[in-house]
Amino acid sequence: MAEIRFENVTKYYGRKLAINDLSFTVKEGEFFSILGPTGAGKSTILKMLAGIEPVSSGKIFFNDILVNNLSPYKRNVSMAFESYNLYSHFSVYENIAFPLRAPKWKLNLSKEEERKKVVEIASFLNIEDLLERRPQALSGGQKQRVSLARALVRKPLVYLLDEPIAHLDAKLKFSTQTLLREFMINYKSTIIYVTHDYREALALSDRMMVLRKGKFDQIDTPEKIYCSPKVDFVGRSVGVPPMNIVDGELIKKDGKTTFKVGKYFTIVLKNELVKSAEKVAKIENDKRHVRLGIRCDDIKLSEKKLSDNSFQLPVYAAVREAESSVISFELENTFLLVRAKENAECKKVQISDLLWLDFKPERLFFYEKTMEIYKS
Amino acid sequence: MSKIDCKNIWRIYDGNVVGVKDLTFTCNDKEFLAILGPSGSGKSSTLRMLAGLEEVSKGEILFDGEVVNELGPAERNIALAFESYALYNRMSVYENVAFPLRAKGMNNENVDKSVKEISEVLNLGAILKKRPAELAGGDQQRVSLARALIRKPNLTLLDEPISHMDQRIRTEVRIQMRRIHEELGNTTIYVTHDQEEAISLCDRILIIYNAELQQIGTVDEIYNKPVNKFVAYFVGQPGMNFIKCKVESPENISLQTNNGKIIFGFTGFIDPKHVGSEITMGIRPQQIRIFGQEGQKSTIFGLVKIIEFQGDSDVLTVELDDINKTRIKVVIPAGGRKYKEKDTCWICFQPERIHLFDRTEKAIIEKKS
User: Fold this and answer.
1) To bridge B268 with a disulfide, which of A344, B142, B245, B368 should be the other Cys (CB 3.0-4.6 Å)?
2) Is the confidence metric ipTM above 0.90 for this complex?
3) CATH superfamily of A4-234
4) What is the rounded distance in angstroms from the CA atom of residue A71 to the CA atom of residue A51?
């Protein structure tokens, strides 16, 4: 396994900037995820690591060795592509065994040793029944697991996994995610994992990067990414329902600072929060604009007023989850979504019922506006 | 508005392939019903028969008590909204929504009145002049719905209309759809393979598998009283845990460990003929109690193998101390005790949370409250 380092890496496709002066380090033995929407540059990073795409400028190091000019052949990486890239004239067994047979690794395995390794990884991923089949005879989900098995069968300096479970159905995806986590616990290796699904990134990673338009907003542990996102975009990138984002202004009056949205919605801020809000406030037309972020689990619903940070709003609509409900409220130009546990008072809410929303002050975040929030 | 009845309907394709087998159900007036099943289960065949796009091989479909088997799609007055929005890009949103009325030859004044009406409900005012291509996915969805609903259909049929949207947008679109349904109260049947979608939107869920009806009921009935193992596992994420156990008495089961057996009680009773046989216990990952120390009665020892952080919860994979070393999943909401991999724990199955399935995979607990 290796430590991987990006130093000021930039990548252009023609005139289009894909990766913008990116520097980061993946530690030896770390499971590192790159989370971002389509087009953020996730796959480009993997391709540059694999040596399939050259960098436009900057340096990539494996264990302090500059690899920019090394061919894919010499980098000793193992990659699973989202598009599977299976050899259709080989059986599943031969596809998985392929990396073990490549002369460059000089593994010189006997037939029995090879079979043992192939069968081991295939049964780990629950595809041992498919070994004699051809890729054409497989479903998309099966092909994807074969592709993953082929990537995991050999121990390289670094595993590069590009959306390796994206095409599995919901139940299988979840169980395969668990297997990946188990693989990582059992065979500690450097793994760089690209996904657009925040659940995979949170569940699997030691650390993760939230990538947007070729630059990252935050690199942190999953807990920090979820519980203290530093940028509005990071907050919106992890969690469903997505973090509530409310734009408003800071008002200082009689020594008190309040956050105000529209006519009726005001929260009095305590000292610590005032500081963090002032830091990101943007002054326009003598008004101090800030953005508030709060998760749907951090607002408490009640039929009574609970504190000074409580507001009454009419219910817009409610949708069910298996063990809870998500209740939405309209506030100016946005929705506030609040999760209500099944056994709470608010189970049978009706449209237009007035409820109190109580904001937990320690779970409020203030942000500079770095993205547009569309209300559907 | 109408009530839909399907009476013993069959769909048989060439070569005696049964697409839908003897399906009977009712969708009440103003109800939002989901038809839920994995791909190839027969749900799309059912939808196509309801829409009049496919012939009913046997049985009857009734709209408000009248048989519609012989009526074509147009005569049934159905609104169909498919997954792909199929909006006309060369027309404004307004003209897209007005299209079905213009096709009927309605005059401008009445068209305008109807478009304004539906726009208000669906909150389209600000985007009426835009072209569909300029809109976000959620907005396109609303335009598509507006076009489907403007004819005041007897029945709205939705075929996975939001399954390919971004997860984050989906929540808001669901909220909009629920709001629209409650305002307009139109009878809606929603076909989907996504159990989460069905739970979030619908009043009742019909589950179909292998061309056959498995269960129809409210979300709570389906989730808390599944009639068989298939329904139990298909609805809920992560899926229900299954553990082999032995029936001790009509009111008790046991798990075998290397240090003897542990007895668990359950709410209700089962037929005494099962006593002594090996059956399957089912329990949802969200409904398991887990402790760091021993102390409770009827607990089984376990080892935390894997922890998956999901933001609002942790999902634990726990290896139980039974002779099969069964692995189960346990969901702990955020704010609960934090476990580490390799921690030991004690698992408690509460009587009212236990499901039991016999060898034919049928749920066998009777009088479960």
Assistant:
1) B368
2) yes
3) P-loop containing nucleotide triphosphate hydrolases (3.40.50.300)
4) 6
Specify whether the backbone of A117 is left (phi greater than 0), alpha (psi in -120 to 50) or beta: alpha
Residues of B in contact with A240 (CB under 8 A): 167-168, 170-171
B105 touches chain A (CB under 8 A): no
Residues A309, A365 contacting (CB under 8 angstroms): no
**Helix B108-122 vs helix B93-104: angle between axes, to the nearest 10 degrees?**
130
pTM for the model: 0.93
The third-level CATH classification (topology) of the domain covering A244-367 is OB fold (Dihydrolipoamide Acetyltransferase, E2P) (2.40.50)
Q: Are B45 and B54 in contact (CB under 8 A)?
A: yes
CA distance B102 to B113: 13
How far apart are the C-alpha atoms of B19 and B39, rounded to whole Å? 12
Structure tokens at A236: 């919106």
Q: Which amino acid is at A125?
A: L
Q: Which residue has the tokens 């909150």?
A: B123
Query: Domains in chain B, start-ordered, CATH in brackets?
Result: 4-77+153-234 (3.40.50.300), 87-149 (no CATH), 241-357 (2.40.50.140)
B138: closest CA of chain A, how far (Å): 5
B173 contacts: CB under 8 Å, gap ≥ 6: A376, B137, B138, B141, B142, B162, B165
Q: Does A73 touch chain B (CB under 8 A)?
A: no
Instruction: Please judge whether B174 and A178 are an interchain contact, meaning their C-beta atoms are less than 8 angstroms apart.
Output: no
Is beta strand B252-257 parallel, antiparallel or unpaired with respect to B32-36?
A: unpaired
Task: Say what angle helices B137-149 and B93-104 make with each other, to 10 degrees.
Answer: 20
DSSP B193-232: S-HHHHHHH-SEEEEEETTEEEEEEEHHHHHHS-SBHHHH
- Contact present, A322 and B200 (Cβ < 8 Å): no
